[in-house]
Amino acid sequence: MIRNILIHPDPRLKKPCEPIAEVSAELTQLAADMLETMYDAPGIGLAAPQIGVMRRMIVMDCIKDAPPEPMVLLNPEVIWSCEDLSTYEEGCLSIPDQYADVKRPASVKVRWMDLSGEIQERQFDGLWATCVQHEIDHLNGKLFIDYLGPLKRQMITRKMEKLKREKARG
Ligand code: K2U
Ligand code: ZN
To answer: Which sign, positive or negative, has the C-alpha torsion 68, 13, 15, 24?
Structure first.
């Protein structure tokens, strides 16, 4: 089912998440809910803490105009990143309608456990590299605005606080 996406500022978006010890039916259901929530947003990535689940799981589907290629990564970690940086104008489903340029390694190699409990390794390039790093940051309580200067970060945070006040008033 589609879950509510937490909006910054929220303490759960700043807390590091717990590693996942073993795969379970409950985890498979969580992955299905995260993918449904991501596609509904719409987005190309989503991390469990963004729906308030403090566990190390991310989902991604960066394919455009091609059959969807949903990925579910448990305990993902970057095991190699190239020196070249690429800049991408990032957004975040937890920081709606705010975009800013973020520089990240252009390619990364990631190791994770999949839903069948197998360990996987894969190199990600281009938008996939940006997305997987953005999602793994979420698992460590890091948001793309943490890469910006203090003034820009503060301006975005103030906008989100205003948005939440208006939502609360209904
Ligand atoms: O984690 C999230 O909030 C979903 C992010 C993932 C993402 C951010 C920046 C760059 C790549 C991925 C996005 O909100 S998903 C929306 C989106 C769609 C296409 C391109 C960039 C962002
Ligand atoms: Zn995000």
So the answer is: negative
Domain 11-169 listed as CATH 2.40.10.270: no
Identify which ligand lies nearest to the alpha carbon of 96: 1
Q: Where are the domains of the chain?
A: 11-169
Cα 133 to ligand 2 centroid, rounded to whole Å: 10
Of 92, 98, 133, 137, which is best to mutate to test ligand 1, by the most ligand atoms within 8 angstroms of its C-beta?
Answer: 92
pLDDT tens-place string over residues 29-54? 999 999 999 999 999 999 999 999 99
Place of tokens 């059959």: 67
Distance 99 CA to ligand 2 centre (A): 11
CA 120 to chain centre: 19
What is the DSSP secondary structure assignment for residue 18, as one 8-state letter?
Answer: B
Give me the active site residues, please.
135
For residue 91, the ligand closest to its alpha carbon is: 1
Q: What is the pLDDT of residues 66-90, one digit of tens each?
A: 777 899 999 999 999 999 999 999 9
